[in-house]
Every structure is written in C-alpha cells, then in structure tokens.
Amino acid sequence: MYALKEREMIFVFTGPHGAGRKTVAEMSGSTLGMKQVISYTTRPPKATEVDGQDYHFISPAQFVAAQADNEFIEVSTVNEHLYGIKSADIELMFQQSGSIYLILNRFGAQTLKKLYGEHVVQIFIYADRATLEERMRESGDSEELIAKYLSHYEDEMAYRDQCDHVFENVDLAHTVFDLTKTLDQNLNRNLLDLD
Ligand SMILES: Nc1ncnc2c1ncn2[C@@H]1O[C@H](COP(=O)(O)OP(=O)(O)OP(=O)(O)O)[C@@H](O)[C@H]1O
Ligand SMILES: Nc1nc2c(ncn2[C@@H]2O[C@H](COP(=O)(O)O)[C@@H](O)[C@H]2O)c(=O)[nH]1
C-alpha cells in the first residue's frame, strides 16, 4: 500500500448512481488541479465511455490475475461486475498532484477512509430518486439497468452521515461553485475568491 506524505489528500466522491459525482468532481477537480484515479472494471463500456478515461475496461480473467498479484487496494462487486482501484495508480497520481480524487460506492469510500484516515475527505453527492431516474432515462440506460441502480439508492443514501460534506446536486453550476469552495478550504489553499 502506498504510504501517503504528510500533506497528501484523497477526496472520495460517493453517493447514489447518477447523482452527478463524476460531473462535479471533474469540474471542481480540474479547477483545483487535482488528478483522478481511474478504476478498473469488468463491466462493458457504455456507448459514450472511453477506455482509460472513464474506466480501465478489463476482462474478468485480467481482473482476477491482477487481484491474485495483490495489485488492488480495494475491490467491490456492483450489479455482478467487479470494480477496483490499483495501489500503483494512487502512487502515480500523487507524483503528478498533491491531492487526488476517486468516485466510489460506499464500500470503496469506507475502505479508503479505513486505510488512510485523516488524509481522506468523503464527499456525498445526491439528488432525489425521481431526479436520478429521469437522468438515467435521459442518458439512455435500459429500464432493467435503471431498476438495478435504484435498488442501491436507499443503502447509498444511508452513507451520507459518514461523510464530511454533503451536497444536493440540483443546479449544476451551484453545486460546482459550493464544492470547489469547500475543496479549496480543505486544501488550506484559500486561493479562490468565490464570494
Ligand atoms: N445538476 C445536474 N442537473 C442535470 N443533470 C445533471 C446534473 N449533474 C449531472 N447531470 C447529468 O446526470 C448524469 C449522471 O451524471 P454523472 O455520470 O456525473 O453521475 P455519477 O454520480 O458519477 O454516476 P455514475 O454512477 O454513472 O458514475 C449525466 O448525464 C450528467 O450530465
Ligand atoms: N468500491 C468501488 N466502487 C466503484 C469503483 N469504481 C466505480 N465504483 C462505483 O460503482 C458504482 C457503479 O458504477 P457504474 O459506472 O457502473 O455505474 C458507482 O457507484 C461507482 O461510483 C471502485 O473501484 N471501487
């Protein structure tokens, strides 16, 4: 496991699927010069997804081999597919930036908190169930997939109390504004004059 240096910080974005975690994390992350650690998954890519950008898409055999080599710091199964974060990727991203971010379900968030303690800031992004359903439908997810994702909604929502910051993502510009300000304060930079 990569040993963090004193000032290195990990921001974990968690919350229900489709809440906008990826969207807001990328927007605030790029403003603050943070690097994302991309997960590996055995899930097939969706039409709009790019390998190496959204996920590293690998076969179940490749995933199992990497797991046997102890390459993953954390592994989770979601809707019958495997997801994981490689320790080497955390180290690599820290070579490029003093703070990194990941987008994980509650199990991944919990694991990173356990491993890295005070270095981890957990950020919960959510929207109400009907809004998420509408967003998933708009993005072209099948009814079967929408039902699968929504079956985790209540469990993911219950994790909000474990998180350091909670944002309801209704108006995107508003969420990104508040989030960027919060991250900036967590980094003790106060570089941004957002008021
Ligand atoms: N505030 C918002 N208002 C309307 N649409 C939004 C808002 N935020 C994000 N979206 C849209 O909702 C969809 C889901 O967003 P995103 O992929 O960022 O969510 P996520 O929580 O990362 O989910 P996933 O589990 O797919 O990674 C995307 O089509 C995105 O453009
Ligand atoms: N615990 C982990 N959760 C992860 C990881 N990579 C992604 N995720 C989360 O899984 C669900 C499903 O993702 P989807 O892209 O298939 O909709 C979602 O909540 C992701 O944030 C990981 O490495 N570990």
Automatic annotation (TrEMBL):
Assigned keywords, A-Z? Kinase, Transferase
Gene Ontology molecular function terms on file: GMP kinase activity
Q: Name one Pfam family in it.
A: Guanylate_kin
Does the record's keyword annotation contain Electron transport?
A: no
Question: Membrane spanning segments where?
Answer: none
Q: What residue stretches are annotated with the Guanylate kinase-like domain?
A: 8-184
Record field: catalytic activity = GMP + ATP = GDP + ADP
Recorded GO cellular component terms are: cytosol
Spell out the Gene3D superfamilies in the cross-references.
P-loop containing nucleotide triphosphate hydrolases
The record ties this protein, via SMART domains, to: GuKc (SM00072)
**Similarity comment:** Belongs to the guanylate kinase family.
Q: What does this protein do?
A: Essential for recycling GMP and indirectly, cGMP.
**Protein name, UniProt field:** Guanylate kinase
